[in-house]
Specification:
The structure is a homodimer of 331-residue chains.
Chain A: E1 6-7, E2 13-21, H1 23-26, E3 36-37, H2 48-66, E4 76-81, H3 87-93, E5 100-102, H4 109-122, E6 128-135, H5 137-144, E7 160-161, E8 164-171, E9 178-183, H6 198-217, E10 223-226, H7 230-243, E11 252-254, H8 255-258, E12 271-272, H9 274-290, E13 296-304, H10 308-312, E14 319-327
Parallel strand pairs in A: 2-3, 4-5, 4-6, 7-12, 10-11, 10-13
Antiparallel strand pairs in A: 1-9, 2-8, 6-8, 9-14, 13-14
Helix pairs in contact in A: 2-3, 6-7
Amino acid sequence: MKGKTIEFKSKVVIRNTAAIGGKKESEGPLGGYFDRRLTDDYFGEDSWEKAESKLQREAIKKAIQKAGYMEEDIDAAFCGDLLNQCVSSHYAMREFSIPFLGVYGACSTMSESMLVASLAIAGGHLKNAVCATSSHFCSAEKQFRFPLDYGGQRPPTSQWTVTGAGAAVLSGVGSGPKITAATIGSVVDMGICDLNNMGAAMAPAAFETIKKHIDERGADYDKIFTGDLGIIGSDILCDMMNREGIDIYAKHEDCGKLIYDLKSEDVHSGASGCGCAASVFCGYVFDELKKKRWKRILLVATGALMNASIVQQGESIPTIAHAIEIEAEEE
Amino acid sequence: MKGKTIEFKSKVVIRNTAAIGGKKESEGPLGGYFDRRLTDDYFGEDSWEKAESKLQREAIKKAIQKAGYMEEDIDAAFCGDLLNQCVSSHYAMREFSIPFLGVYGACSTMSESMLVASLAIAGGHLKNAVCATSSHFCSAEKQFRFPLDYGGQRPPTSQWTVTGAGAAVLSGVGSGPKITAATIGSVVDMGICDLNNMGAAMAPAAFETIKKHIDERGADYDKIFTGDLGIIGSDILCDMMNREGIDIYAKHEDCGKLIYDLKSEDVHSGASGCGCAASVFCGYVFDELKKKRWKRILLVATGALMNASIVQQGESIPTIAHAIEIEAEEE
């Protein structure tokens, strides 16, 4: 393993966040943390893709408003999503005149966008930035697996793509939980080719990034949140860490296991999608950080970097994980 | 218009670059500037997508080598491409253990990746980074327009996606042409829905970014290189600038007009694709900058941010342009 953990040279705070959940997500255990809860996943649009874009747009608007800013106070937006050519982000950003830099890390996009924005803010080049991502169950199934109308059976390893979005406003001034350090992940591919077992594919990337980060920064975190490893990927990650002598069983949480009631909802191995880490972080985690339930956490969103046609060409699934360290605001 | 041009707070130099051209590109007027000239666009692979990924991988390897570095000297890679979920970049990066941040700005990706890397380097958070992108005529036609086998007729406004890749190694130390300032573009959509007239769609984004940049930094550039506006988009851009009282007719060049011999090759309105700005900048422009043919240039790669299915849903094409200002090394 190579590459160094980055310690930000000046203050980066998360001024505020906003989260929107789809119908199923809003009825789940974290529904109360969302700023907006959909009752219809079309969100008033005539396609799932347009609905997803609206999710992201509304999350961005709400986060800027909750941070006490106007659109013109934001120096740049860092967004991306799962749709081909990231159109969810692009059509969302079309409604703003904010300078925009597209990022893509599949389901790792929420931590990637905050990492890249932190580099720009801590370096003194931007003052305020908004970071956002989204996903939609229906647009993702259609694009990555089967059209919903086909009624394909989902294997037990499969995960349920979150319909939701999250946005966070980062700033070099003011108060809020601080982003203090980050580790950029490398691409890891352990040879898994099953589009219905993303958790297993992504766990080694999460392992590598967390291991690198902990080697440099210590393991003193109240919680380590991964993005969407789900039940299977989470087990693999904790076991891999354990074999290295690092016990994270008690402090590890996975956004993909938190957002649905895994016992009563038919989501098999848990949740996935850019919107999973985004809505869970920008809803639940950020709210609890502000309440100082935890002092110091690590957010490690994970992404599977394939597309459907390259897997049909026989390729396995490359994955990545980016870690950002966040400290609750001091008293 | 809003958003400020960024002046980098400390030195960012382009240590070296590498460019690879496909068969058609290598036979064109800039063929002599490429580090590698393909004779077969499959590049020894069994699919166009895998060939494109290899183009990017080989460009990255070559750029790192030409910069006098080893892979382990590179702190991060900033790459992206046109393929769904940027698989060209991801499968290229799978062969390296370099920390990787995916960026996506369609055909604006070359200037976006150098802009984002410059933010990280000038802020003191990274020392060396590699920036790369690629495109492939066959994979792009299949994905955005028609399968090649269909033999669809191309209208006169259409552009020919470049088969090629470029990579640049940026650093906070050492010598080379300097990246001194940049302007992040906003998303611009003037209502064009024609997937065969990208130049016209992108010209207003180029206009807005160049106008913003010049308003703050002056117009003292020896050349302003846009990415892939082609013949039609270039005319629109120069006319739009002229109406604002800024005459760029003589100093404007478009990578999409330079890479092919427009008189003898059947490319209609010129070239396009991420690999256009990438291979022209990393080949021709960088070589001539090193020879000090120009003292100060502006590189403004432009991107069309749609996908085929959202346009089929009736949406118009959002576009973007990012500008980076580059100065030749001082004597």
